[in-house]
Amino acid sequence: MEKVVREMKIALQKHFYRSAQEIITLDIVEELDNLLLEPTIDIASLSRSHYNHLLRQIFKNNGWQNNASLFHEPINPFDKIELRKNHIGLEIGFRHASLTGHNLLKFQLSPLHNSDKIDLGIFVVTTQNFQKQMKRAFGQNWTGAMTFEKTDRYLRNFKTTIQIPILLIGIDAA
Fold first, then answer.
1. What CA dihedral angle connects 58, 60, 62 and 68, to 10 degrees?
2. Helix (H, G, I), strand (E, B), or coil: what is residue 134?
3. What is the reported pTM?
4. Angle formed by the axes of helices 100-113 and 148-157, to 10°?
5. Measured between alpha carbons, how far is 123 from 32 in angstroms, rounded to an integer?
6. Long-range contact list for 137-140, CB < 8 A, 24+ apart?
7. Where are the alpha helices (DSSP H) in 24-171?
8. 3-class secondary structure, 165
9. What pLDDT, in 10s, does the model give residues 133-151?
10. Closest among 160, 12, 156, 23 to 89, alpha carbons compared
């Protein structure tokens, strides 16, 4: 019996924390939507590492810069925010779910350790639905990756700890 795979499209979910919606400009929101919904992305090929690499390239090709280490010595590559543009830090959260809190704290630590302060953090993760659809439709294993739902819970529970405004974006399957 031949397996029939329905066409899957990418959709976005967004939650704003600490008045991020008042800081982010409409042109940045539109840019994020355009880059994350890039129509040439081959969804079937999106393993965690490939998708992370692909999105980093798409953002770098559109003026986002790699960010230097948060600390004075670049000891740990996980201690830096991946991309930045116009005082906005962007992190792609496709790593293991155990790093969710660590990645969110990078936004809080950035103003303390960088001469270039960020005013807003953007955290891009996938939804549980996206991960299930990738496994079912394409055999891509996203088990253990950070999720939009878990990150949302972290942000609500860390509201007194994380003071920087954050836009949480969930890549979902439509």
1. 140
2. helix
3. 0.87
4. 50
5. 11
6. 137/5, 137/6, 137/8, 137/44, 138/5, 138/8, 138/43, 138/44, 138/46, 140/44, 140/46, 140/47
7. 26-36, 48-60, 100-113, 128-138, 148-157
8. coil
9. 999 999 999 989 999 999 9
10. 23
Place of tokens 């929101």: 29
Average pLDDT over residues 164-171: 95
Integer CA distances (angstroms), 41 to 132, 133, 143, in order:
19, 16, 21
What is the tens place of the pLDDT at every residue in 23-82?
Answer: 999 999 999 999 999 999 999 999 999 999 999 999 999 999 886 444 444 555 456 788
Two tokens, residue 39: 């129509």
Q: Based on the number of CB atoms within 10 Å of its own CB, is 152 exposed (0-12), middle (13-18) or buried (19 or more)?
A: middle
- Contact between 81 and 103 under an 8 Å Cβ cutoff? The reply is no
Tell which residue, 66, 148, 70, 58, has the closest CA to residue 105: 70
Q: Are β-strands 166-173 and 10-17 bridged in parallel, bridged antiparallel, or unpaired? A: antiparallel
